[in-house]
Amino acid sequence: MPSFAYKVRSELCRTPVQRLCCARAETYGVLLFANTFSAHEVRIITENPEFAARLPRLFHKAFSLKFDAVPEDGTRGKLIFRITDTDKLHRIINQFGYDPRQSFAQHVNFAMVEDDCCRGAFLRGAFLSGGSVTDPEKRYHLELATSHIQASREVSALLTEMGFVPHTVMRGASSVIYFKQSEHIEDFLTTIGAPVSAMDIMTAKVDKEIRNRTNRAFNCDMANMEKALDAAREQLTAIEKLRDDGALDSLPDKLRQTALLRLDYPELSLQDLAQRCDPPVSKSCINHRIRKLMELAAEERKRDAADVRFLPHKDA
């Protein structure tokens, strides 16, 4: 079964490649978060066949060029796309306003992402190339990883400007931007063109909340049931004490009726026990009678203890 991250990429890859500015912004995001982007080589590695099918169309739209090396038909696993031709590399580099003689890939040219549509496309490319997202049934986590540390900082600043609250961390030689709040992940996915996946997160969150509420309610019911059973056992012990001491027959009718009902129906709640009285009584009334029976049983135990204390010793 495809992973949630795979489904997100598949949804993103269904976004049409139409406007030239957005195609260039998306390739910009792809390159800054790709495996290699330098004056000497572009190398993009993916295991997603839909992203692999999108890359040639994207680069042709953005730069009117083809990759120098592409995966052979039927290749599975890691799919590698490369550009090493100097003219093609210069065309890409010049398009982004870099000087190939400098370490150009260490920052973001914000002129490429001025419009909202281009920002969404840029972040879509960044996610397709260097992003991942966890199945929301397990936990909430989305990240963008790149070896271009300065570019990562500037992308983080861009996200902050757009109203997101990104976190950053270094993981080996890579700088990682990440989100852990479901709302931010939903908004990010919607922004980059994956509203269906964002809705899946919302649905998963609602399902979790329903399950949690159900579990809390069940645990609460079980705890209340345990308390009721403990109370019923304590009541039974007291009434059995009165019965064994022959004290039931001397009780007033209402107390004797209540005691016999509890002996006959040890599992019933006080509310149900009250309804079995003749005539039926309120829960507070039956509770009062039960407390009286337990007080009488406690007095019986005190008398028994006193009798034992004052029995003459057998050697006396």
List keywords for this structure.
four-stranded antiparallel beta sheet, Endonuclease I-creI, 58% helix, 2 domains, rod-shaped, 11 helices, 316 residues
In short:
The protein has two domains: 4-193, Endonuclease I-creI (Roll), CATH 3.10.28.10; 218-301, no CATH class. It has eleven helices and seven strands. It has helices at residues 4-13, 20-32, 49-63, 86-95, 116-130, 149-161, 182-192, 195-244, 253-264, 270-275, 283-309, and strands at 36-37, 42-46, 79-83, 131-133, 142-146, 167-171, 174-179.
Kindly describe this structure.
By secondary structure, this protein is α+β, with helices and mostly antiparallel strands. The protein folds into two domains: 190 residues, Roll (Endonuclease I-creI); 84 residues, no CATH class. The strands form two sheets. Strands 4-5-7-6 form a four-stranded antiparallel sheet. The chain has a three-stranded antiparallel sheet with strand order 1-2-3, with helices on one face. A hairpin with a 2-residue loop joins strand 6 and strand 7. The protein is rod-shaped and about 110 Å long. The model has no long low-confidence stretch (mean pLDDT 88).
Topology:
Blueprint: H1 4-13, H2 20-32, E1 36-37, E2 42-46, H3 49-63, E3 79-83, H4 86-95, H5 116-130, E4 131-133, E5 142-146, H6 149-161, E6 167-171, E7 174-179, H7 182-192, H8 195-244, H9 253-264, H10 270-275, H11 283-309
Helix pairs in contact: 2-3, 2-5, 7-8, 8-9, 8-11, 9-11
